[in-house]
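Treating backbone geometry as a discrete language has practical consequences that deserve illustration. Part of our work consisted of pairing the sequence of a single chain with a tokenised description of its backbone. What the numbers capture is local backbone geometry rather than side-chain detail. For completeness, the protein is quoted in full, as a sequence line and a line of structure tokens:
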Amino acid sequence: MRGLPAAAPDTGWRARLDLGFAPTPGPQARRTRLVRAEHSGPLQVQRPFYPERDGTCHVVILHPPGGVVGGDRLRLDAALAGDCGALLTTPSAARFYRSAGAAAVQEQTFRVAPGAGLEWLPQETILFEGARVTTTTRIELAGDARCLAWEITCLGRPAAGEGFARGALDQHIELWRDGAPLYLERSRVAGGSEAQAAAWGFGGEAVCATLLATVDAADACDAAREALGDTAGRCAATQCDGLLLLRYRGPSAAEARARFIAVWQALRPAVLGKAAVLPRIWHS
């Protein structure tokens, strides 16, 4: 389709990060360990942090160059063994810069074993004017594995007066359980296209965001809506078949993130059985 990202050629950065999490063996206090952190190229991880009593592992994903350009390809793979708890986040917004033609590609796959809980809570993704981006996030749950995850996408830089009249986004978000799809989303937006202005698309707003939570509690949706407060019609929540879906469409990535954090704090006890503890990096 005209205006959408072409496959990245064999140029630019190639970066891969492969993470593995496993519970501490033996009878001592249970803690989730980062047992594998293999990387190539400019994609790395800080040392694990343990701010919670139950030993949940907090990990910050680092991309030292600070921005992504056309032709770059980033891949993150993370696998959680049974009975693990891991929270993954990023230190700042991901920035995709203007491309001369090739797309930047970002692929993220999370595999979560029975009894484990994944939290994927990155800061926002910002597409600069002229960026061409293909991004895929796939979460594969097994058995009773649980997850809380979000993606926040900003077309252009509204605070700097920059729109997204040129460029393209091809975004995939997938959530699976035991090989069956729970949620499949694909957004294809060409800069300056009808999708940016239409009510069925971005509705003239710069930011679109999705939050997913695996939760069976009947009152989870009401709890999420209460946590959102008055959103002036920018947020909507629904729950079906053990999955809560929250969508945001509005002018501000900071507002989307603040709303999502409030919902995460409200839902974490029902999803993961523990109160929310904010990652240290969010305070810096």
